[in-house]
Recover the amino acids of this structure.
């Protein structure tokens, strides 16, 4: 485990790391999850062996600190992730990011383009105001006070066992503020950032999730859209061998 400060007040963001050649591959998890849980199993795939790999937990998640006076916005998460890449140092990385982590990765790539060589986004949030049934929307629908008082317990009881297992490792305040920021979206919005970035960009969609909205436009702007049959939102769990193939090819 490695760590560095991220908020100017001594709070630490942490990650686990495997040695190897560069460019480094950096995994970033989704809302209420942890990077090693979501992605470490991919390290056993021979197509991904020998690469320096970092599994980063965003502030408030997993093994990272959870300061109560931190905003947990997409921009603040992106700055914390930049602190990891500045500290490591890694050079331009392949940034592999899931769901909310994908939104954070896009903000980082726009703010600090020298840190990001390529992006692989797995079902990343591209638009604000997701459907009411989305996990982030359900969390953000509570006031912060209500979520801390009883909403966190209610949400844990409603989500599936797999997500609940990692959500229990997330600070409730960080979870709610992260969800609120994700629902609000970035400025410019994540989809616009993805369209205009100069880096190599891949968007991975689970086939069971249905077609990606606006896929044709993204392709026109140089984004490679890959649909993985038989996978849902968690492509890395549903079809790990297919996901590893996408990573190995980029």
């Amino acid at each position: 485990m490695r760590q560095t400060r991220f908020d100017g007040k001594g709070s630490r963001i942490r990650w686990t790391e495997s040695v190897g050649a560069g460019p480094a591959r950096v995994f970033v998890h989704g809302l209420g999850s942890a990077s090693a849980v979501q992605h470490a199993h991919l390290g056993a795939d021979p197509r991904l062996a020998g690469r320096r790999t970092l599994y980063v937990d965003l502030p408030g998640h997993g093994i990272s600190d959870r300061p109560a006076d931190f905003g947990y916005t997409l921009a603040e998460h992106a700055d914390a992730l930049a602190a990891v890449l500045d500290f490591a140092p890694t050079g331009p990385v392949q940034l592999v990011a899931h769901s909310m982590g994908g939104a954070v990765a896009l903000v980082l790539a726009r703010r600090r383009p020298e840190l990001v060589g390529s992006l692989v986004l797995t079902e990343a949030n591209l638009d604000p105001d997701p459907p009411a049934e989305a996990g982030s929307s359900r969390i953000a629908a509570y006031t912060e006070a209500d979520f801390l008082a009883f909403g966190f317990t209610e949400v844990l009881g409603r989500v599936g066992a797999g997500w609940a297992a990692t959500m229990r490792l997330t600070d409730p305040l960080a979870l709610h503020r992260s969800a609120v920021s994700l629902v609000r979206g970035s400025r410019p919005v994540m989809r616009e950032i993805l369209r205009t970035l100069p880096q190599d960009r891949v968007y991975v969609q689970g086939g069971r999730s249905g077609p990606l909205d606006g896929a044709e436009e993204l392709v026109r702007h140089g984004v490679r859209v890959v649909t993985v049959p038989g996978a849902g939102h968690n492509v890395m769990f549903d079809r790990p061998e297919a996901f590893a193939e996408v990573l190995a090819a980029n």
